[in-house]
């Protein structure tokens, strides 16, 4: 334990300080981080008999303020009694002291001023990719930011100030967590440029902003859609094999394999087939109207999704066979030999 003596640097004019001096003393070491002792108030009495010890009006000051109080709000006023000339008020260094400041002449204590602007962490990305089937409420990323000030001056809040055109995204004001607020649809919007703004609660309030590009990637959420609800065609029963009779078409809004369409005939038939790439239906076997006059085929359009479930649609195709003169007249023998023979034709 060390002891220290207080010495005069120059002669003291006790007439100017009839009540003596109040000295605030604090010891500190030379370590890193530096450590401080408790604060001690030492009164040096005037050698004159009329010297009166100084003390604060109250032994302790208690005050209550809101946690949302902006800087510059008056907290309290401390005062020495009796108050000597040339007194200077100071707040002893501590973590809590950073939240307040004191007027050295009047003893008026107010909340501290805002000096530093908030800043984004180096991990802030310039772009991020999300799938359009990401569920509502899903977290995309957490944005980090800091403010060197203390108290409310250093409290950082987050917001999306621009670019959230259809309100698909939300950011937690206090944590900076960005998540999905509304269902995403790449077919409507595949790119968002969000203005992420951070600000503190200081006065004057300070802020900073960065742009975050969100790319919505395709998911297989659309099925192929035929251009017509149904198809029909009339052909001659004498149509030769390989003849193309009608083309069906379906379109898929998805991208890549998710949007590529392949066609097939679901109906069990040998008379007709379809080109899986073009949707062109053609005759695959001999037709005979006298055996079957029309066909109802089920045509399927299916996408080529490589993962998950493939999407498909089915449409009916009716094929009507028109008659041709492909049958010769035939004699029908009479049962009664006395009658004439009849000629029929089909």
Describe the structure.
This protein has 346 residues and is an all-beta fold. It has three domains: 1-112, Sandwich (Immunoglobulin-like), CATH 2.60.40; 119-217, Immunoglobulin-like (Sandwich); 225-322, Cadherins (Immunoglobulin-like). It has strands at residues 21-25, 40-44, 55-56, 74-77, 80-81, 100-102, 108-111, 119-120, 127-131, 139-142, 145-146, 156-162, 169-171, 177-180, 191-200, 207-217, 225-226, 231-236, 244-247, 250-251, 261-265, 272-274, 280-283, 294-303, 312-322, 330-332, 342-344. The protein has a four-stranded mixed β-sheet with strand order 9-16-15-12, with no helix packed on it. This is Cadherin domain-containing protein. One of its GO terms (molecular function) is calcium ion binding. It is a single-pass membrane protein. Residues 122-226, 227-331 form the Cadherin domain.
* Shape designation: rod-shaped
User: What is the arithmetic mean of pLDDT?
Assistant: 86
Residue runs with pLDDT of under 50 for 5 or more positions? none
CATH topology of the largest domain: Immunoglobulin-like
Number of helical stretches of at least 4 residues: 0
Order of helices and strands: EEEEEEEEEEEEEEEEEEEEEEEEEEE
Largest sheet: 4 strands, mixed
Question: How widely separated are the two ends?
Answer: 131 Å
Short description:
With 346 residues, the protein is mostly beta strands. It is built from no helices and 27 strands. The strands form 10 sheets. It has a 4-stranded mixed β-sheet, with no helix packed on it. The chain has a 4-stranded mixed β-sheet with strand order 18-25-24-21, with no helix packed on it.
């Amino acid at each position: 334990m060390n002891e220290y003596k207080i010495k005069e640097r120059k002669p003291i004019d006790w007439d100017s300080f009839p009540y003596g001096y109040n000295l605030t003393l604090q010891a500190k070491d030379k370590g890193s981080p530096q450590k401080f002792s408790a604060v001690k108030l030492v009164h040096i009495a005037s050698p004159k008999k009329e010297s009166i010890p100084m003390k604060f009006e109250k032994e302790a000051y208690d005050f209550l303020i809101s946690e949302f109080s902006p800087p510059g709000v008056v907290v309290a006023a401390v005062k020495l009694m009796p108050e000597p000339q040339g007194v200077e008020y100071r707040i002893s260094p501590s973590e809590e002291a950073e939240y307040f400041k004191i007027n050295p002449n009047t003893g008026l204590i107010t909340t501290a001023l805002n000096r530093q602007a908030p800043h984004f962490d180096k991990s802030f990305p310039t772009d991020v990719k999300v799938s359009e089937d990401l569920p509502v409420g899903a977290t995309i990323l957490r944005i980090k930011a800091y403010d060197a000030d203390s108290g409310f001056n250093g409290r950082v809040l987050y917001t999306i100030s621009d670019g959230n055109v259809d309100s698909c995204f939300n950011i937690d004001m206090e944590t900076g967590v960005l998540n999905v607020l509304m269902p995403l649809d790449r077919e409507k919007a595949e790119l968002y440029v969000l203005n992420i703004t951070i600000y503190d609660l200081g006065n004057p309030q300070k802020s900073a902003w960065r742009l975050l590009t969100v790319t919505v990637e395709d998911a297989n959420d659309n099925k192929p859609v035929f251009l017509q609800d149904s198809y029909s065609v009339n052909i001659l029963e004498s149509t030769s094999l390989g003849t193309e009779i009608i083309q069906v078409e379906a379109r898929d809004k998805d991208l890549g394999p998710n949007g590529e369409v392949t066609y097939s005939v679901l109906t069990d038939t040998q008379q007709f087939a379809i080109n899986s790439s073009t949707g062109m239906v053609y005759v695959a076997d001999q037709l005979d109207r006298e055996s079957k006059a029309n066909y109802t085929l089920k045509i399927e359009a299916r996408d080529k999704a490589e993962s998950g479930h493939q999407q498909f649609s089915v449409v009916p195709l009716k094929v009507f066979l028109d008659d041709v003169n492909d049958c010769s007249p035939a004699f029908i023998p009479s049962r009664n030999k006395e009658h004439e023979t009849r000629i029929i034709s089909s």
